[in-house]
Amino acid sequence: MFSRYYFSAPSGEKRYLCDSCDRTYSNRSSLKRHMNYECGKLPAFPCTLCSYATKRKTSLASHYYRKHVGEDGALPPPHEPDYIVPE
């Protein structure tokens, strides 16, 4: 039950180092996820409304709602790809 916490470094210490890019992580599972899905890979998820691209689909979804959805929840018109939500 507590096995996932067993590999965590104490008090946020980052002791798991990626050999390829020197990023550090506080637990082994985060390092493994980084190595499998991020390290050395090009962004695979481009935004269709701007030049943003990311390696994670969830990051693209966050970007989309943060940058392209209006305060009233309205989506940008599909025929206007350069639509900018007023701040």
From TrEMBL:
Residue ranges of domain C2H2-type in the record: 16-43, 45-73
Key word Zinc present: yes
UniProt GO MF annotations: zinc ion binding
PROSITE patterns the UniProt entry points to: ZINC_FINGER_C2H2_2 (PS50157)
SUPFAM superfamilies the UniProt entry points to: beta-beta-alpha zinc fingers
Xref: InterPro entries: Znf_C2H2_sf (IPR036236), Znf_C2H2_type (IPR013087)
Keyword annotations of the record: Metal-binding, Repeat, Zinc, Zinc-finger
Signal peptide coordinates: none
Name of the protein in question: Gastrula zinc finger protein xFG20-1-like
Organism in which the protein naturally occurs: Diaphorina citri
Lineage of origin: Eukaryota, Metazoa, Ecdysozoa, Arthropoda, Hexapoda
Name of encoding gene: LOC113466555
